[in-house]
Amino acid sequence: MPLSPVIQSLLDTDLYKFTMWQPMLHRHPQAQAVYRFVLRNQPEYPLAELVDAVNAQLDHLCGLCFRRDELDFLASLRFIKPDFVDFLRIFRFQRDFIAARAEGDTLHIEARGPQVHVMGFEIFVLAIVNELYFRRFDQEAAREEGRRRLDAKIAQLRAFAQEPPLAHPFEFFDFGVRRRFGRDWQREVVATLARELPDFFKGTSNVLLARDLGLVPIGTMGHEYLQTFQALGVRLRDFQRAALEEWVQEYRGDLGIALTDTVGMDAFLADFDLYFAKLFEGLRHDSGDPFAWGEKALAHYAGLRINAHDKRLVFSDSLDVPKALALYRHFGDRVDMGFGIGTNLTNDVGLKPLNIVMKLVEANGQPVAKLSDAPGKTLATDATFLAYLRQVFGVASQAQRTA
């Protein structure tokens, strides 16, 4: 019997795939890109065993199209433009642009082609691999444990609600599509949080769930958007400024949270001058010590004579409820905040989650790289380009920092 489809709607993905897709279609429709799947931890069984099922799921994905009601929802978002909706109306994923194969115990997945045709694969591939992987485990036992842990999170936040309020509210949202236990489990978790914690739970990155549950879809930009500019013909030292400038021109005040760690926070702040600091609503943390990052952000705003109470810091790196609350207690009287919690919401069921990504590794025939503030998150396939990027931005390697 064939496996049931993991992906049943093309809205079942992160909002930021659409918000990055639109400016790339408008300004760089000719860009070519390569995305590769990477496993960062040790699974319970080799992912190569999933290759046939993954290929079947990719066949199904490439048969889907956007339905009218889905396009209507996207069009209702004021930052989504009519011509982009028209593009999505005729869009289909092309099976020739993605391939999955097994080599020993390793599962290889690569998407290669025009960026506006392959950039959307990422979240779907990760959701497919996750769900296929976890289908081999005891589903009912996992859900029962997941509900117990979810109830504990809700109890913890209800206890927190009794604390004296700080200057800014505590708000969190679901960022858990890419590493979820499964599609139906994510829906149950998000619906439960929306029902039980309406004062704290403010939205989800999952566009389908946002539509179905009447929630705010959350998301702006990811690393791939900034990385692409490393290969778009601008001087490498200027790629961050070029990416931020095009974002401002595309959205003109909407979607104003900038991602800071494509080449590290220090290098980002060197480019994030008064112009950008005034135009962007705030910053998103995705690697490194979040407390040190927050202090750097606040010091930067202070140096520019910008009132941090008018800005927003979004934390999204490996968060759980205790870490989010600790960050809130530390910064809550100084700046507005939001907390995007992923795996710990949608895959906290007593099983070891997969640590998987599918990242941009090449654009227009050139390597691109990410210099994360956490060494384990640095991603590059070309050591020469990575060394050059470090040199251009004055970012020391981990070995150099510890020497």
Provide a concise account of the structure shown.
By secondary structure, the protein is an alpha/beta fold. The protein has 18 helices and eleven strands.
Q: Overview of this structure, please?
A:
Helix 3 runs antiparallel to helix 4 and helix 7 packs parallel to helix 8. This protein folds into 2 domains: 137 residues, nicotinate phosphoribosyltransferase, CATH 3.20.140.10; 160 residues, nicotinate phosphoribosyltransferase, CATH 3.20.140.10. With 403 residues, the protein is an alpha/beta fold. A 6-stranded parallel beta sheet has the order 5-4-9-8-7-6. A 5-stranded antiparallel beta sheet has the order 2-3-1-10-11. The chain has 18 helices and 11 strands. Helix content is 45%, strand content 14%. It starts with 14 loop residues before the first helix and ends with a helix. Keywords: Glycosyltransferase, Ligase, Phosphoprotein, Pyridine nucleotide biosynthesis, Transferase. It catalyses: 5-phospho-alpha-D-ribose 1-diphosphate + nicotinate + ATP + H2O = nicotinate beta-D-ribonucleotide + ADP + phosphate + diphosphate. Its EC number is 6.3.4.21.
